[in-house]
Amino acid sequence: MTQRLDVETALRAAAPHELVGALRDALTTAYGATSVRLFLTDYGGTLLRSCDSSGRGEDSLPVSGSAEGRALGSQEPREQQVPRGDETDHHLPVTVRGDRIGILTVRLPGDRCAPEVLDELRYVADLLGREILVAERDTDVYQRARRVSRLTLAAEMQWQLLPARAYTEESFALGAQLEPAYAVHGDSFDWTADADALMLTVTNGMGEGIEASLLTHLAVNALRNARRAGIGLADQAALADQAVYDHYRGASYVSTLLLRIDRATGRVQTIDAGSPQLWRMREKSIERVPLEAQMPLGMFEESHYTPQEFTLAPGDRLIFVSDGVYETLSPLGERYAERALARSIHATSLLPAAMVPRAVLRDVAEYRNAESLDDALVLCLDWFGDDH
Predict the structure, then answer these.
(1) Which parts form a coiled-coil structure per UniProt (predicted)?
(2) Which residues 6+ apart lie within 8 Å of 196 measured at CB?
């Protein structure tokens, strides 16, 4: 316990850009570690990028097919024997409230791999994740390490607007992904949870590049401003609608899907203001949730919005998709939403919510017979209920 406290003290005292170096020194002293490496998930969710104090992230490992990637996927520590020696690499998930930040790999001599040491290393990996989130306020090291290539300015703006890509607590789990990760345009998502409700928004702004990103920024921040004022869902949509219209006068608008889920009952209030679609998987049944289409935000002056309601049951899975997903055409001209989307939702039913969006987007790209997508978003919500 004293050793763990020493490591924790060293991490908390380290400069924001020196977390990895401070941790390496502390683990060497406390547990005899001979190597300590941090790998961060890249923006596309397909690679693990090495991270040091420079933040260059020059080495990459595939998430699919590597021992580190298997630890990330299973969210369980994995051991890997080092060739020509008695040392073992311990791959430890670095995760904060369901957000899979990366993998901490600690190499220990064989005589230092006692179960109690591994328990302490798991605690250290959790602590490191939280320290990284705090440190990112003051350094670009960890942001820089995640990048396989340079983000477009529009993508930079979009990623800074987003919450985490995954979030988990007792009553629900969330996961989301944007494509193409390094050049996203107008698609976005947002969520917030309090004691009474979970609120979700999925948005799809018109246009491309900077203009699409600016439009989405205005809409998302208008919705946040209204939500934080404590007003109801219909008024949130109306105020955001007015903010967008006042600026663009109807020339540009934002398709938005808003939800408020009562945590005690699973009762959902929703407003379909545009194109994002909602699908539900209940046991083995998959169906599109029928919603009344209302005006996108900013299309007309003083639009009025009326929430619809339905109820979630424990075990339900909701899948939100933008038009870049459901409108994708196969080489033969068939829309992805006609049959392939339901098949993909069923095929990913055993995956945790955090992994579903990446898997669906990979399936969409294969369906289109292309390596990447123009502009697409998938968000997955698993509802457990407060009494699960």
Answers:
(1) none
(2) 262, 263, 264
| CATH code, domain carrying 367 | 3.60.40.10
pLDDT band for position 208 (50/70/90)?
Answer: confident
pLDDT value of position 1: 63
User: Are 173 and 167 within 8 A, CB to CB?
Assistant: yes
Angle at 138 between CA 41 and CA 181, to 5 degrees: 30
Q: Is the pLDDT of residue 183 over 70?
A: yes
How far apart are the C-alpha atoms of 314 and 298, rounded to whole Å?
35
Neighbours of 193 (CB within 10 A): 16
Checking if the pLDDT of 275 tops 90, the result is no
Is pLDDT at 33 greater than 60 in this prediction? yes
pLDDT value of position 110: 87
- Domain co-membership, 126 together with 275: no
What is the domain range of residue 102?
Answer: 1-146
Of 110, 129, 146, the residue that ends a domain is 146
Q: Using a CB cutoff of 8 Å and minimum separation of 24, what contacts does 233-239 make?
A: 233/258, 233/260, 233/269, 233/270, 233/271, 233/305, 233/307, 234/271, 234/304, 234/305, 234/306, 234/307, 237/271, 237/273, 237/297, 237/305, 238/302, 238/303, 238/304, 238/305
Same domain, 190 and 312: yes
Q: Are residues 215 and 354 in the same domain?
A: yes
Q: Are residues 172 and 282 in the same domain?
A: yes
Total count of domains within the chain: 2
Alpha helices in 115-167 (DSSP H): 115-135, 141-145, 153-161
